[in-house]
Amino acid sequence: MVLKDTEQANKYICGHCSSEVNPKTGIYEKENDKYFCCEGCRSVYHLINDEGFASFYTKRTDWDDAAPAEQVEADEEYFETSLEVLKNGDYSLSIVITGIRCAACIWLIESSALKDERIKSFRINYANHKAKIVFNPNDISVKEVLQKITRLGYCPLPSTNIETIHDKERKDYFYRFGVAAFFTMQVMMYSIANYTGYFKGMDDSLYFLFKLLSWALATPVLIYSAYPFFQKSFAALKHFHFTMDTLVAIGAGTSYLYSVAAIFLGYETYFDTSVMIITLILLGRFIEAGAKQKGGNAVAKLLSLKPKNVRKIICEQNGEKTYITIPIDQLLKGDLFEISTGSNVAADGKIIEGICEIDESMLTGEPMPVNKKEGCQVYAGTKLINGTCIVMAENIGIDSFLSKIAASVDDAQSSKAPIQDVADNFISKFVPFVLIIAFLSFIYWYFLASVGAELSIMRAVSVLVIACPCAMGLATPLAVISATNKLSETGVIFKNGEAIERYAYVNDFYFDKTGTITTGNMSVTDCKLSFSCSSVLNLITSAAFYSKHPASKAIAAANESLYECEKFEETAGKGIIAEIKNTNIIIGSQKFLQENSVKFTAEYEKYIEKAIEKGWTIVCAAVNHILVGVFSISDIIREEAALTISLLQKEGNNISIITGDSQKAANIILGNSGINANIFANVSPFDKGSILQNAKDTKKTVMIGDGINDAIALTAASVGISMRNSTDISIESASAVLLRNDLSIIEKSHKICRKTLRIIKENLFWAFSYNFIAIPLACTGLIHPVMSAAFMSFSSLFVVANSVRIKK
User: Fold this and answer.
1) Sheet of strand 654-658: strand arrangement
2) How far apart are CA 412 and CA 502, in angstroms?
3) Is residue 2 scored above 50 in pLDDT?
4) Which residue among 73, 156, 498, 626 is buried most deeply as judged by most CB within 10 Å?
């Protein structure tokens, strides 16, 4: 059957996916006067309309290659490794959604999902089609969440099972550029012959033949190589949208069509211009895609450090172990597995047998291997250099430290820095502006300057092709990707691009003392006790054992016999109250004990005063509200602390150190180490937050800490940086996490972030300046369309090259 008109043809187009439908085999709905290619498309069409999302069909673009919707069944068992349990009990599901073809697809999926109040968050990254979904498992199951996606005709997959979109994009550009480059060389050969013949004389029939050959050779470039430009331009124009592809398509298409007409009108042809525009721009896009892929591969490289299989111990009899090799996804928490020389660790865990050397450079940046023995912690992705060990799995899958780093890198690379809004707002208005300028240029040269259609069209084409919003669009994202990779190599992971930009502006640094400026490895230097029996000491050390504070751990190290704690309460930054064997034990600062009705004799007051003068940290202990001892605790200042603070100060930054110690003790400890900084002493956790909130310029503050008592301050600061050995609470509160406990990273990363911001500004300045100068030059006819294409590609490549400088 031959379709005679558009209205009739539309009847045989699927109402959902827009693919052609055979009227004899398709599904026809008389009430809607619509055909559907399959039941899947039919059900999805009604679902979208019933849910009130009919405007989806007016928003979508790039669906010319649509395939029939297929409702697939997603088995939730395959997504177990993509689940993360959040602190509040919610689930975070990270997946990849296939079948997304345009922004309207994202709008449809997110809108449909968020209509269900049981789903708290649903965010899709258009760059890589990754989705992050937050929901409460008590309200909705993983299977129900997945079904909300599949019933719309899209397919969810675990995030580790798909090739990156940048790799596909790069391959596609390579193939199209290869075809364009080959045919362009042939076109240029005949064009040069024609130009030479024009001046030197050439037989008219041969001259005409060369024009026809140029036409034949240019056509594959316009049909195949330039197809994405035309496809996306037409799809966008249907909805009155304009993109960079619109300028390229109009510029190349105009010179091509003009040249076809010129063959038969006896004018000069410009097929070389048309194909050269496409070839140069494809070359630029290919290089850009390579840069994106190289940056985007950081996450894939991190995750690839995990082995695919693991040797799991299934039983042990008479000292003989039985092993079975299983895929890493089947490893469970509590399982025992073996690591041997040359293998990578499969999961975070604790060594229960064996001695080995492990290369942890991928986490810490330190090249020297670390000696590990029974009781030591190992991390997924690190490599065993020498030895054999048995490890008990503790954190597997997305709970491992490596996966958390990869997730943070992924979030940072896909996030948007605030400065990018400047470029985004400009680009939305830029393309229509260029189209208007090109049209006015043609009007001027053709009607007012009367130079003829040939030159008028070429000058308008030059305007279209030389304009480059791509450089503006790339200015920030590529710089953020490069910076994220460089920062991770330096030893710090930023959670998003916004934090990187904020860190570039900060100049007011606040350091926690214990565990940050100091190593946190405290020990009891001296003590004054009012008892001699070991049972009292065991009561004190047993209570201290349950605390995570470094000072408590130092006291607990003297433990001889551990008693079970019946009641335990810890007040961050002050002390603990415990009950053991019906005995009340209070351990903490002098102020904390006095607040709990413990009295201090003059003898103890004098001892405390002298200990503070020596720079020691004082921890007091009381049993049944009677003071029984005072422990003098000392800590070691990190070797790099003084130099790091000095370098930061030389760069014009203000340095402050916050501590719960007395002013006198803090002055002595820091002064002896050569650290000269503002000191906030006797500070409680809540006071730490207040100090940051009351800072002169809260937008330029950074807090570096490691403990629970730093969480408020880390949140209050413009940028919070957590130490490597921090608690989960402080890591979640921070904007960035150090991969190793080295304060020099603070100064190095600050330089990188400042350099990143400077390069972003350079990129934007170049992009704006380039267009400001190039477009007027093209209007005046001083730049040929071919040179316009070269300049446009160069503009984007300049931004790419400039962004890569961050890594150096």
Assistant:
1) 492-494, 736-738, 719-722, 701-705, 508-512, 654-658, 678-680
2) 13
3) no
4) 156
pLDDT tens-place string over residues 335-354? 888 888 878 888 888 999 88
Determine contact, residues 11/33, Cβ cutoff 8 Å.
yes
Integer Cα distance of 180 and 187 in angstroms: 10
Q: How far apart are CA 351 and CA 337, in angstroms?
A: 10
Catalytic residues: 512
Q: Has residue 585 got a pLDDT over 90?
A: yes
- Terminus-to-terminus CA distance in the chain, angstroms? 64
The answer to whether residue 792 scores a pLDDT higher than 90 is no
- Calculate Rg over the CA atoms of the chain: 34
As beta bridge partners, residue 153 has none
Phi, psi angle pair for 655, to nearest 5°: -120, 130
Q: Tokens 């200990």: give the residue.
A: 611
Helices (H) and strands (E) in the chain, counts: 28, 27
> How do residues 150-203 score in pLDDT, each as one tens digit?
777 677 877 654 445 556 677 888 899 899 989 988 888 887 776 666 555 677
State whether the Cα torsion 774-776-782-786 is positive or negative: positive
The three-state secondary structure class of 615 is coil
Q: What is the pLDDT of residue 594?
A: 92
What letter represents residue 616's amino acid?
W
As a dihedral over the C-alpha atoms of residue 158, residue 161, residue 165, residue 170, rounded to 10 degrees, the angle is 170
User: What single string gives the DSSP state of each residue in 569-591?
Assistant: EEETTTEEEEEETTEEEEEE-HH
- d(C-alpha 107, C-alpha 384), whole Å: 46
Q: What pLDDT is recorded for position 1?
A: 31
pLDDT of 366: 53
Rounded Cα gap, residues 593 and 582, in angstroms: 19
Task: Work out the widest C-alpha separation in the chain, in whole angstroms.
Answer: 118
Cα torsion at 442, 443, 445, 447 (round to 10°)?
Answer: 140
Q: How far is CA 758 from CA 268, 295, 412, 507, 650, in A?
A: 47, 19, 18, 16, 19
Tokens standing for residue 798: 């300049």
pLDDT of residue 534: 80
d(CA 707, CA 498): 24
Instruction: Report the relative pairing of strands 575-580 and 719-722 from DSSP bridges.
Output: unpaired
**Paired tokens of 187:** 């076109």
Residues with Cβ within 8 Å of 759's Cβ and at least 6 positions away in sequence, in order, are 479, 802, 803, 805, 806
588/684 Cα distance (integer angstroms): 13
- 489, 365 contact by CB (below 8 A): yes
Tokens of 522: 């405290």
Would you say 757 and 498 are in contact if contact means Cβ atoms under 8 Å apart?
no
Determine contact, residues 795/470, Cβ cutoff 8 Å: yes
